[in-house]
Each structure stands twice: as C-alpha cells, then as structure tokens.
Design a protein that fits this description.
Number of strands: 5
CATH class: Alpha Beta
Strand order of the largest sheet: 1-2-3-5-4
Shape: globular
Number of domains: 1
Radius of gyration: 17 Å
CATH architecture: 2-Layer Sandwich
Largest sheet: 5 strands, antiparallel
CATH topology: HIT family, subunit A
Length: 135
Amino acid sequence: MENKDCIFCKIIKGEIPGYKIFENEYVYAFLDIAKDCYGHTLVVPKQHYENIFDCDETYLCEVIKATKLIANHYKSLGFDAVNIINASGKEAEQSVFHLHFHILPRKNGDSLKVFPILPGIDEPLEKQVEKLKIN
C-alpha cells in the first residue's frame, strides 16, 4: 500500500533522494532535509498509513521498536538524550500525512527548546478523568 503523491512514499521507493539511517522490512528512517538540528531523523512505516489512528499494529510496533533502536544508537554515539515527537492529524499540526516519528538527538547545553508553552486549563483533573479514562 502506497500513496503515489506522498513524499515519504517516494523517498522509501528511491524516487526522491533520502539520507537513510536505518531500514528493515517494515521501517525506513532518514534524516529530515530541514536540517533544523543535528541528526533530526524521521522514522516511518514502509506501508502508507496517514497517522497513528489508521496504522496497523504490527507496523506501529515495528516503527516504535526502530525508534528505540535508533535512539539507543544515537546515545552510543555520545548524545545525552532524545526528543521523540509525533503529530497525528491536521489539528495536531501534522504536515506530512504519512505516519512518522521525529527523533531529535540532544546534547547537554544544546539550548534547543522543543516543547511548546501551553496556556493551561482551569478544569479540575477529577472532571477530566471522568471524561477521559478507559473503563
């Protein structure tokens, strides 16, 4: 299953150049061409899934396993930590509609600010848990 208009599908198929970091039967990982921070890596399933909501569980598990493998590899190369980021859905600011996880290798003192500053909410946690918990 592929999407002929998807840039990530084109990278996986070799139709567009990519800077491959890792590949197996289920997963393809490559450097983000934005070059916004050193080692910014995208980990994607080789099958086209739009986001976490429609992704087959086998592929999703393989993507997460590869994300961990790559993160551990980066730690072995001297990075201190990683940020792992996913946006699933337009409202969550997903910009490429092929499931992907970003790995941002981090060094102590790199001064990158990755997490957004959120405005906060007034609703008590007790009310939220009533709506959100899985029974």
